Fold Transcriptional regulator, LacI family.
Amino acid sequence: MQSKRKRGLFFIAFVCGHKDTTIFVITKIVIYLCRKYLDYYCVRAQKAMNKPMNTPERIRIKDIARMADVSVGTVDRVIHGRSGVSEASRKRVEEILEKLNYQPNMYASALASNKKYAFACLLPQHDTGEYWTEVEGGIHEALTTYSDFNITVKLTYYDPYDYRSFARAARSIADMKPDGVLFAPTAPQYTAPFTDELEKLNIPYIYIDSNIKEAPALSFFGQNSHQSGYFAARMLMLLAGEDAQEIVIFRKINEGIVGSNQQERREIGFREYMSEHHPACRIWELNLHAKRDSEDAQMLDDFFRAHPTVKNGITFNSKAYIIGEYLQKHRRTDFNLMGYDLLKRNVDCLKEGSIFFLIAQQPTLQGFDGIKALCDHLILKKEIARENFMPIDLLTKENIEYYYNK
């Protein structure tokens, strides 16, 4: 290495054409290195001067306790923001922490504590392969990823078309007194008693799929449903053409209940766009029975018989395949259908052409990030963003293969 440096210096001297150039270059290098070392040791000296006397190089909790004249337990409670510390002791410890610029290794502390964390998740009832299966997949993936923290998750389900079912399931979770809760809220007036109880018990909770701003959670993971519906209307009307006179909204509904806040807010956003940009376009509605799938075909027959000129439609739930498969069976290729979510049956319809657009919202990531946020908040003591919006991904048969496989 030294011989290479010498050769380099002599080469510079040769190029410059002056025999004193080598000495000049070496002098410059020596001065540069001296300055670098001087800066390094000055910084070290400054840090040392700022530390209290007799402070060890590696700061431990017991060192802080000794300097503050308190117990190790008191320092631990201050660092982790727990109660049970007098104001005088807290202030003394905080002053020392600030002076030392102490940064606790929360990850190592969590592993060393060996504490167990029990989380509860409340999701709508669903069949295998439906939208919420993907959310569950993300939850289980997070369990594996954060297994070092000794976390467990208990899944509980409610009937999305029965508010009493949500209330019963919520009550059972509150009785469990878990460390944190991840759930898909129902209508605000039925969600509020649950969130009130969780706050009373000082249990952090996170929303997925839909957000209730009147009762803000620690965090929310999901789409901006209103914006998603507004965007869907714009895309559907680009597909239908500016002169489209009528469209249809397909719903799955039971006794007046749509089944999720997301669907209702998507429809509000959709209608807002239509009112602003296509006020003359007639919007029909077809309410399919949520719990009587056997009647779907007959209801679709009756609708299309009564409205033969309707060529465009949308559904805001994840079961666009119901209409898509109906269109395939009846060889209808003149109808533009738009729906939500990458269920396999939806994707099959997209590839076959009976669904033209699908909007995806990454349910696996919602489940994973919901559990991750609880770990970050409770175990690693990190700040959590209040709202975390999923992208509004528009998919067609031309781009679905890459996205779906990913």
User: Anything to note?
Assistant: The CA atoms of residues 119 and 311 lie 47 Å apart. Residues 21-50 form the longest helix (30 residues).
